[in-house]
Write a structure and sequence with these properties.
alpha/beta; globular; binds magnesium ion; binds adenosine-5'-diphosphate; 36% helix; 4-stranded antiparallel sheet; 23% strand
């Protein structure tokens, strides 16, 4: 079953005109196209990597998926629920760990997780909250105020927050950017375990070594377009690089020998892939 279905997704950010500008008849300035006809399907149980340089559109794609940003064109659904027309159910199927650390500093860790549970109408969620806290090494911080936590601890709480409603699909937007080795390992062990338990994982990361080790399939975004999509090993093989990092560099440089080859691969995922000359 496809749990994430993205069809012809285009996103254009349009700058807003002030009332004064509108009254004076100032023309609508052109928008910025962050996503350009993106098509992507993720199956239940996959560990999927969404890769691309800064500004490629990864966070925009996740924002549309999470219902935080409206698509300009196209259709997006999570577990069969359209994110625009069935927003609450789509959102419930998703646990999102955002790229930015945003918290209310006045609440404790447990209060933060209880409030998040409340958003999903969950009362008496403490058994599960305790389990998540223990798995993320946060048990002894349950009663600590958010503002007293280190950056790494805050990031663990972000992950915990995404899981309070036991979502089948977990989306992590650069969860290991700027975190120390110890936390990175804890996070990965935990996320691998969630995946083994049947959760679908969608991950963006700049650590290509990490993506290569974890992700069964990857998509590469460049300036809002998918330029490669395949099983991780097949993609590396196809591009002829030593590893995913080398494949990434070649694809992003737009190596002419690869033209068309990597996106074709998407249509015949399990077939041996070939580079078209
Ligand atoms: N709210 C916004 N308004 C205008 N442009 C935006 C907005 N959010 C992101 N962008 C632009 O869209 C592009 C993609 O951004 P983003 O999705 O954050 O990329 P990534 O997560 O891959 O680094 C960037 O050029 C960024 O500047
Ligand atoms: Mg981003």
């Amino acid at each position: 079953m496809s749990v994430v279905r993205i069809e012809h997704l285009t996103k254009i950010y349009t700058p807003r005109r002030s009332l004064g500008q509108r009254l004076r008849g100032v023309a609508q300035p052109p928008g910025f196209q962050a996503l350009d006809d993106v098509n992507l399907t993720i199956e239940a149980g996959e560990f999927f990597g969404l890769l691309g340089p800064n500004g490629a559109g990864k966070t925009t794609l996740i924002s549309v998926l999470a219902g935080l940003s409206a698509a300009t064109q196209g259709h997006v659904s999570v577990c069969g629920y359209d994110v625009a027309h069935d927003a609450a159910r789509a959102r419930r199927a998703l646990g999102v760990v955002p790229q930015e650390l945003v918290f209310d500093p006045f609440f404790t860790v447990r209060e933060t997780l209880r409030i998040q549970s409340g958003y999903f109408g969950l009362r008496r969620n403490d058994d599960w909250i305790d389990e998540i806290l223990a798995s993320l090494g946060l048990a002894d911080k349950a009663d600590t105020n958010m503002r007293a936590l280190s950056g790494g601890m805050k990031r663990r709480v972000l992950v915990a927050q995404a899981l309070v409603h036991r979502p089948p699909v977990i989306v992590l937007d650069e969860p290991t950017a700027g975190v120390d080795v110890d936390l990175r390992r804890t996070l990965w062990e935990f996320i691998v375990r969630l995946n083994q338990q049947g959760h679908t994982i969608l991950l963006t990361t700049h650590y290509l070594e990490e993506a290569e080790a974890l992700c069964g399939r990857v998509a590469m975004l460049k300036a809002g377009r998918i330029v490669a999509l395949d099983r991780t090993a097949a993609l590396v093989r196809q591009v002829g690089g030593a590893d995913l990092e080398e494949a990434f560099v070649r694809i992003m440089r737009g190596d002419p020998a690869l033209a068309g080859g990597t996106s074709e691969a998407a249509r015949a995922e399990d077939e041996p892939t070939e580079v078209s000359a």
